[in-house]
Design goal:
Layout lengths: L3 E5 L2 E5 L8 E4 L2 E2 L6 E4 L7 E7 L2 E7 L12 H35 L41
């Protein structure tokens, strides 16, 4: 048989496994005034305590190391599961939204009018010919025949 320990705020309630009504409680070797099956420790300071309960020839002992706090909230397993599930769903939703918005932005950036192509895709048009520096073509030598080289 085992002790039943209930913690609420700073109150610890212990239930002895003995079925008798007259039970002696000992906390760290000191006898308590309570003689019932249930023993209540008010304003427990979270320090470890050796607890024992006895009646006639039977004695049960326990080492109590319970952490208590005045303004703690108790959550059941269903509430914790719900909180974790909601957090995961919200995170997944944000990831999907970021993915789709970033995917659309990539497509618009390359098609916009203000952007220039980069790298190998860039082609330059041929330079505009300058009439002052046209190359001499075959059959057009007479245009330049009047120009003679000067001797220095």
């Amino acid at each position: 048989k085992e002790f039943l320990v209930e913690i609420s705020g700073t109150t610890v309630t212990l239930t002895c496994p003995l079925t008798e009504s007259n039970v002696a409680w000992y906390l760290d070797g000191t006898k308590s005034d309570d003689n019932e099956r249930k023993h209540v420790i008010e304003n427990h300071n979270s320090s470890p305590v050796n607890v024992s309960c006895s009646s006639a020839d039977k004695k049960y002992e326990m080492y109590l190391n319970a952490r208590v706090c005045a303004n703690c909230e108790e959550l059941d397993a269903l509430a914790v599961t719900g909180i974790i599930t909601a957090d995961l769903l919200i995170t997944l939703g944000v990831l999907i939204l970021v993915y789709y918005f970033s995917k659309d932005r990539k497509g618009r950036a390359s098609a916009s009018a203000g952007s220039r192509p980069r790298g190998q895709k860039m082609q330059r048009p041929p330079p505009v010919p300058n009439p002052d520096y046209e190359p001499i073509r075959k059959g057009q030598r007479e245009v330049y025949a009047g120009l003679e080289s000067r001797g220095f």
